[in-house]
Amino acid sequence: MVERSIMNITDAARAILARNDRGGYTVPTDGLYPFQWNWDSAFVSMGFATFDIDRAYQELERFTEGQWDDGMFPHIVFHVPSDSYFPGPDVWQTEHRHPKKPTTSGITQPPVFGMALRFIYERALAENRTDVVERTCVLFEAALRSHRWWLKARDPDKCGLVAILHPWESGSDNSPAWDEALARVSTITKTEIRRQDTKHVNATMRPRNIDYQRFIHLVEVYRECEWDPIKQWSHAPFKIADVQITAILARATLDLLWIASHLNLSDVIKELSTMHQLLINGLKSRWNENIRGFVSFDLISGKNIEKLTQSCFIPLIAVELNSHQRKIIQDEIERWCQGMVVGVPSTAPFSADFESKRYWRGPVWAVINWLIADGLRKNQLVELATITEGNTINVIERAGFCEYFDPITGEGLGGNTFSWTAATYLVLRRRLADS
User: Fold this and answer.
1) Could you tell me the CA-to-CA distances from 202 to 20, 174, 414 in Å, in that order?
2) CB-CB contact of 148 with 67 (8 Å)
3) What pLDDT score does 394 carry?
4) Containing H/E element for 130?
5) Predicted local confidence at residue 3, as pLDDT
6) How many C-beta atoms surround the C-beta of residue 244 within 10 A?
7) How many CB atoms lie within 10 A of CB 133?
8) For residue 237, cis peptide bond before it (omega within 30 degrees of 0)
9) What is the pLDDT, as a whole number, of residue 205?
């Protein structure tokens, strides 16, 4: 009976990916997010890889249709028109910088693509799929161009920490980590703000209107820079050296190194090794004993961002901690999860910034738990990783494939039938079965 129930939920997860398929690419969920999102699709491709290798490759291939000539992967690819999301292509106006179709947004998102490519390629090899080498090489080249863009455009001083110029680039849009920096951004916009998200989801679960005013003001600043990365860097009113992005980039760089070694792409191995070491050194410099984790850095104010958010733990996917740090991280994650129905909350529940239902200010996100669990495993904290994975599986089985979850009640929040939540379930459930 239990096995049949698990199979039913697995079938439901696969059905969500099929339902959100728009012809070789997946939308996060119907209505609320009607386009292809950058890191969403990377996670979704890994979910597909648990049962359909070809469709997994196709997810990444369709996404690369939006890659810019300079290597940037945009955060949204507008394959087909839709009026159920704001801001759309008419606000971004990226056509002169990226004249090709499909049109895209002008900013980026966490670079999970390289991680996804290795995951899919390894699954293909496990299934003795020797026919995927050419597809892997093409996608590898796209990923490498993206990594080069990150280092050139977002770490011009070679500090080993890449920067975000908009909160949307972090993936954690309204995180408390951005409060102080975002407060410096003007709320004045030329664009009429026509929010569509609150027509689909209760406003108490979404960023506030004042957040959107600042989000759109930043879009306008960079639009006036004609989306030129050099101009954007010099004019940015919001510029954060982000440990979450840097950690994902470092981990993805290591994954590209693995692919390059496996495919004997010797001409890029030295470049990737140098890139990886630079990022690891940068991340290690961001350990903070007071916060008991890693902290981002505000490049405009020159201050550490000492906010208790999930980004404190994401560097575990890239950095090998010493025994002292491992003990601190274990104790801290356990403290964050104490008294919660499900962890890990995206903001510490004992923080004044914590809101259990508001987007990135408290709710639990399945993909974040996936990353944290991977980082815990990398750092020999296997028991805590297994607990985190098990709690994620359990809350999805109880509450459904929701966008995020209330850590206090376990209630499903945000969008329903969410693609990356379904993908997380498929990957973690498969991992549990394999173990």
Assistant:
1) 22, 16, 8
2) no
3) 97
4) none
5) 58
6) 26
7) 14
8) no
9) 86
Determine the Cα–Cα distance for residues 36 and 258; give it in Å rounded to an integer: 27
pLDDT of residue 5: 73
Other CB atoms within a 10 A radius of the CB of residue 201 amount to: 18
Name the residues annotated as catalytic: 173, 403
Query: What integer pLDDT is reported at residue 1 of this predicted model?
Result: 44
Q: Which residues make Cβ contacts (< 8 Å) with residue 119, sequence separation at least 6?
A: 45, 46, 49
> pTM score, two decimals?
0.97
DSSP H helices in 26-132: 38-49, 53-64, 89-92, 113-126
Q: Rg of the Cα trace of the chain?
A: 20
Tell me how far CA of residue 62 lies from CA of 22, 24, 77, 97, 101, in angstroms: 11, 6, 9, 20, 12
Q: Which pLDDT score is estimated for 12?
A: 97
In 3-state terms, the chain is what percent helix, strand and coil (to 5)?
A: 55, 5, 40
Contacts of the segment 281-290: beta carbons below 8 A, 24+ positions apart: 281/160, 282/155, 282/159, 282/160, 282/161, 282/241, 282/246, 283/160, 283/161, 283/243, 283/246, 283/247, 283/250, 283/315, 283/318, 283/319, 284/319, 285/160, 285/161, 286/161, 286/243, 286/315, 287/325, 289/328
> CA 317, CA 252: separation in Å to the nearest integer?
10
Buried b (16+ CB within 10 A) or exposed e, 295-323: bbbbbeeeeebebbbbbbbbbbbbbebee
> Angle, nearest 10°, between helix axes 2-19 and 38-49?
140
CA-CA distance, 176 to 221, in Å (whole number)?
22
Among 404, 310, 422, 312, smallest CA distance to 359 is for: 404
Reference 207, options 41, 407, 357; nearest CA is 357
Does the bond joining 87 to the residue before it have cis omega, within 30 degrees of 0? yes
Structure token digits, residue 253:
């760089």
Backbone angles phi, psi at 169, to 5 degrees: -65, -25
Say which amino acid occupies 371.
Answer: L
391: left (phi over 0), alpha (psi -120 to 50) or beta: alpha
* 7 residue type, one letter: M
Average pLDDT by consecutive 10-residue portion of the chain (435 residues)?
71 98 97 95 98 98 98 98 94 93 97 98 96 97 98 98 98 98 97 91 91 98 98 98 98 98 95 98 97 98 98 98 98 98 97 98 98 98 98 97 98 97 98 87
